[in-house]
Amino acid sequence: MRVLYKKVKLNFWAELVDLLDEKIVKLEGIEKKYGENFVSFFHEFIDKRNVKDLIESFGVPHTEVDVILIDGRPVRFSYIIEDKNMVEIFPKLSENFWQKYSSDKELKLIHLKPKLSLHKKFVCDVHLGKLVKKLRMLGLDVYYKNDLSDEQIINVSKSEKRIILTRDLGLLKRSDVKNGYFVRNVEVNEQVKEVLHKFHLSSEIKFLTRCLECGDKIKKVSKNFVKDKINLRTFRYFDEFYYCSNCEKVFWCGSHYRAMKNFLNNTIGDFKHYFKV
Ligand SMILES: [Zn+2]
């Protein structure tokens, strides 16, 4: 029987280079050059493969990919790779980039990433509990339970149009995941910065509007209302209180909020006008 090898050339562009699996990079002798905007290499295989599977075999989940060009033509994930294809894989990039890239040729792009709705909502995997609390502190809408299965995460993402935040590349490679993001950083404050930046969330920050425990909206309540729900020191020291009617928790602008406010002011810029308190 004749074995049909296919030899293709791949270009992974921009931030996708960081997601290439280190083991495969070594095995294939892929050279990552510092300062280059893409990594380019040849690859051989024998089976029938669509472009989604080919891309993911190098460690890059399809949720990070926005445009694929085969021999200069845009395709979808189901495209079956042919011998000698030139495969270019791009993350979400600016209009500016595409204008420069396609200045001398007619290029009608197919964007594979779903359009984000104006109100951005998230669902986090079970390992991102610390990040969840900080995002809720900023008033962002984040669904989270510490025992969510992959199936539950995907279902919530689909039914409520939530973006999956995870550090599990395997989860993002599942074909039923449409809207997901691989959180690059490990340290929680860096993760907060990354998510705010990535999804342009600075204008959506509203302190003391969400419950840190369940994510529901909280309401301002009178001092009298919380009198028997908190300790005396807190009651004496603070005047503004907020209450979650779902899990009956009381919140106030204590040290965690002040630390977050300082963190934002020091590291991201002047966020003063987003603070209610
Ligand atoms: Zn609550």
Describe this structure in words.
The chain has a domain of 96 residues: Ubiquitin-like (UB roll) (Roll). It is α/β, with parallel strands linked by helices. The C terminus is likely disordered. Zinc ion binds next to loops.
The CATH fourth-level homologous superfamily of the domain at 6-101: Beta-grasp domain
Mean pLDDT: 90
Helix content: 25-40%
Strand order of the largest sheet: 2-1-5-3-4
Give helix and strand order, one letter per element, not per position: EHEHEEEHEHEHEHEHEHHEEH
Q: Which ions, cofactors or small ligands are bound in this entry?
A: zinc ion
Number of strands: 12
Uncertain runs: 273-277
Distance separating the two termini: 74 Å
Rg result: 23 Å
Annotated CATH architecture of the domain at 6-101: Roll
**Structural class determined from secondary elements:** alpha/beta
Helices, by number, come to 10
CATH topology of the domain at 6-101: the name is Ubiquitin-like (UB roll)
CATH class assignment of the domain at 6-101: Alpha Beta
Main β-sheet, in a few words? Answer: 5 strands, mixed
Concise structural overview:
The chain has 10 helices and 12 strands. The protein has 277 residues and is an alpha/beta fold. It has a domain at 6-101: Ubiquitin-like (UB roll), CATH 3.10.20.30.
Tag the structure with descriptive keywords.
single chain; 277 residues; alpha/beta; Ubiquitin-like (UB roll); five-stranded mixed sheet; four-stranded parallel sheet; 10 helices; 12 strands; 28% helix; 18% strand; disordered C terminus; binds zinc ion
Topology:
Blueprint: E1 6-13, H1 22-27, E2 38-45, H2 51-56, E3 67-70, E4 73-75, E5 86-90, H3 95-101, E6 121-124, H4 129-137, E7 141-143, H5 150-159, E8 163-166, H6 169-173, E9 180-182, H7 188-198, E10 219-221, H8 223-226, H9 232-237, E11 241-243, E12 250-251, H10 255-267
Parallel strand pairs: 1-5, 6-7, 6-8, 8-9
Antiparallel strand pairs: 1-2, 3-4, 3-5, 10-11, 11-12
